[in-house]
Amino acid sequence: MQLLHIDSSPRRARSHTRQLSSSFVNEWQIRNPHDTIARRDLGADPLPHVTEEWIAAAFTPPNERTETMQTALRISDELIDELLKADLIVAGIPFYNFGMPSGFKAYVDQIVRIGRTFAFDPNLPESPYTPLVKGKRMIALISRGDGGYEAGGPNESMNHLDPHLRTVFGFIGITDIEIIAAENDEWGGQALQDSLQNALQRAQQIAVQETSTC
Length: 214
Ligand SMILES: Cc1cc2nc3c(=O)[nH]c(=O)nc-3n(C[C@H](O)[C@H](O)[C@H](O)COP(=O)(O)O)c2cc1C
Description:
FMN binds at residue 9. Belongs to the azoreductase type 1 family. The protein has helices at 16-31, 52-58, 67-72, 74-85, 102-111, 161-172, 189-213; strands spanning 2-7, 36-41, 88-94, 118-120, 129-131, 137-143, 176-182. It is globular, with a radius of gyration of 18 Å. The strands form 2 sheets. It has a 5-stranded parallel sheet, sandwiched between helices. Strands 4-5 form a two-stranded antiparallel ribbon. Helix content is 41%, strand content 18%. It contains 7 helices and 7 strands; from the N terminus they run βαβαααβαβββαβα. The chain is an alpha/beta fold. β6, α6 and β7 form a beta-alpha-beta unit.
């Protein structure tokens, strides 16, 4: 198995999403010492946003791309190659302003690419879009400052992160997504501790389950 471990919090030791993702990965490593783990730290090493050159290059057929265009897509190619090699993606994602942080969005914009992770054919009868990424599972480890954003909770309608993740990763073919969230960072105290403990337990449980199914 190949695991891709992504973190996107700009915080380091104080980050709950980093704590959740490292807890999962540590448990995984103990059980699967021969697996390979690729690492992306979008908080420590932010990615560039897409540019006009990037867009022009992405929508030019590969055999017609100039050297400058190929350069514009180099980071995107590297990220997509890394993603395609992974069987399991473990991503720590803070909840910022009701959605994903810009560092993670920059990653999404680099990996959702015509001809590489999705195909476009206007002549197809049902949908012009075909996802090109197959057979992957994703574990999204989220932390939120407030509470009640879960399904059925009072703030569910303001949670744009969970549906966005399912839509955008589903669009490229990653539909098997488990979302685990800790809440109440802003409140602290017992409310935070309980929520974090539950999320850590669930993350560990999945690491154990995944091991026994692969
Ligand atoms: C820029 C910014 C925006 C945030 N927006 C929200 C928000 O909309 N709703 C919320 O519940 N918490 C919000 N928070 C709190 C974070 O979700 C919370 O601190 C979370 O634990 C961050 O993840 P981390 O611990 O991995 O850094 C925000 C925090 C920051 C820094």
